[in-house]
Amino acid sequence: MSQNTNALEITNLRAGYDDSNVLLGMSLHVGSTECVGLFGPNGHGKTTLLNTISRVIRPRTGSIRFMGEVIDRLAPQNIVARGLIHVPQGNRLFPDMQIMETLELAAYTRRAQHELKTNLDYVLNLFPRLAERRRQQCKTLSGGERQMLSIGVGLMCAPRMLMLDEPTLGLSPKLKDELAEAIAEISSRGIPLLLVEQDIAFILSLAGRMYLVDHGEVSREINRGAEVDHREIMDMYFGSEGA
Ligand SMILES: Nc1ncnc2c1ncn2[C@@H]1O[C@H](COP(=O)(O)OP(=O)(O)OP(=O)(O)O)[C@@H](O)[C@H]1O
Ligand SMILES: [Mg+2]
Questions:
Q1: How far does residue 75's CA lie from ligand 1's centre (Å)?
Q2: Does the beta carbon of 88 lie inside 6 Å of ligand 1?
Q3: Which of 138, 160, 213, 234 could form an SS bridge with 93, CB 3.0 to 4.6 Å?
Q4: Is 43 in the pocket of ligand 1 (CB under 6 A)?
Q5: Residue 238: its pLDDT value, please?
Q6: Is pLDDT above 60 for 2?
Q7: Cβ contacts of 18 within 8 Å, gap of 6 or more
């Protein structure tokens, strides 16, 4: 990959479920070491976009390039093997497994096996709470600890890029701050990030740019530092929906 190659390039992507079209021609990119936000209200296709990139669902048209290569025909496990890692929305942990088992199991690809010890040390340093509770079962973890473990699972996959789907959903402001610090640390290592969130201020505290998603398309791109009228954006989405 040359230094100028984007980590991720989505062009005119269309996808959906059965008869419904959810992504109606989505285009965006994430630079090679960039943290980019994706904001949009419920049901406008953010998770569907990540599911399409990680090939949980099949793109209908358009293209997905990762590190310069077209990946939209690859099987999901091959996308993970290349290091494009999707940390899904909500709790997808195995309830009866312990923290350590969960982290070790996540490192199943050859590359991740190779990096297992380094990545495990990194995760346990990044989230000392997980280290303290290493033998605790996932079902007994708090919401914040689950989110930390979910990101930890992503990191154990030896990511070349991480896509985080609403990592702070339902967390207190204090825990949100803790997660923001962890995400900033991951980003400072040069790992490109696509951060899906519903909190514009949170996104812009971490990301240099963000895309606004509106009914399966990118409606606007906002750079950090630009004058952002949060109320205008909230009205644009929720005002019309609530009317
Ligand atoms: N497995 C599925 N089968 C059918 N329709 C689905 C499926 N998953 C999502 N959808 C529909 O696709 C649309 C987009 O959903 P999606 O989960 O991508 O939204 P989102 O932007 O991530 O929302 P949220 O902020 O609530 O997570 C919604 O109308 C949803 O009902
Ligand atoms: Mg979602």
A1: 21
A2: no
A3: 138
A4: yes
A5: 67
A6: no
A7: none
- Kindly state if the Cβ of 45 falls inside 6 Å of ligand 1: yes
pTM over 0.85: yes
- Domain boundaries defined on the chain: 8-242
Amino acid at 35: C
Residue 182 has pLDDT above 90, yes or no: yes
Q: What is the DSSP pairing of strand 217-223 with strand 209-214?
A: antiparallel
What is the Cα–Cα distance from 35 to 193, expressed in whole angstroms? 5
- Name the nearest CA neighbour of 77 among 68, 69, 86: 86
Residue spans of beta strands (DSSP E) within the chain: 8-17, 20-30, 35-39, 61-66, 69-70, 84-87, 161-165, 193-197, 209-214, 217-223
Find tokens 């790992």 and name the residue. Answer: 191
Q: Which fold has domain 8-242?
A: Rossmann fold (3.40.50)
- Tokens in use for 29? 């990119």
**Ligand 1 in contact with 11 (CB < 6 A)?**
no
Ligand 1 atom nearest to 45, measured from its CA: 18
**pLDDT tens digits for range 205-219:** 999 999 999 999 999
